[in-house]
Specification:
Blueprint lengths: L6 H10 L5 E2 L3 E2 H6 L2 H5 L8 E6 L3 H13 L4 E6 L4 H5 L10 H12 L6 E5 L2 E2 L5 H13 L4 E5 L2 E2 L6 H4 L7 H10 L4 E5 L5 H7 L5 E3 L2 H5 L7 H5 L9 H16 L6 H4 L12 H7 L3 H4 L5 H7 L11
Amino acid sequence: MMDWTDRHCRSFHRILSRHTWLYTEMVTTGALIHGDVARHLAFTADEAPVALQLGGSEPADLAHAAKLGEQWGYDEINLNCGCPSERVQRGAFGACLMNEPQLVADCVKAMRDVVSVPVTVKHRIGVDAVEEYGFVRDFVGTIADAGCDVFIVHARNAILKGLSPKENREIPPLKYDYAYQLKRDFPQLEIIINGGVKTLDEVETHLQHVDGVMLGREAYHNPYVLADVDSRFYGSPEPVLSREAAEAKLIEYCAAELARGTFLGGITRHALGLYRGVAGARGWRRVLSDNRKLALGDLAIFDEARTHLREPAEMFE
């Protein structure tokens, strides 16, 4: 979720669900070793629990980055072995690491040696034309021997040449049964499934076979799907937040961020799907996407956007 799940996105998602585990966008070790650490790692206590997702392939560099993550208060350090983008491949990390399980094991061990928070791995089920279940089984087994006990399984192959990152999220077929089999083969491990999940009913079905479910694109483009998570899966007695109440809390957050000099559009871009499926949602999105208006930093833009929610002709966009 590079360039997507920044602190504003996570703060908005936290409005909708108090208990859902949130993940940062992938941060490379180079960015933390040579760049502005605060810019990449700063987050608010209200966002917790939050996992820091790292991209890298050098054990020492990952250990350094993991230690920084723990110092900054992250609840988990996650190593990305699933991103197929060419930019990531040039750095010899992401999905191409699945071809080097012993290196991943060394990276996991190096991080575990310096932090007390959990170190987890997110990965695909195969790379390029490798379709056999044994490939991902052996990968998980090798990393588990290094002490990792939580695996987030994006249940598709990663095609390293010929497909864009977007196509890699859509074209390779989903094989949920591979993740289910991992749980049967490694019952002591926590197996979390990812890829193509759109509804909480689907989440319910997957939880009959695995320990957890990660939502990616659906949670971003249709964030209100998170509103029912706490009551349905965490037993929260709190009433489900309405879209209008979520918007009101978002406006409060925007007011605080405007006082810090934040560009309003940097926040609203993450909330454009709040009224997805509601009459007038297109007009609401259009107003909150107008950079000229957003640049004014005037929260009255929400009042203008809300007037469109009374347009029945745009029902179920």
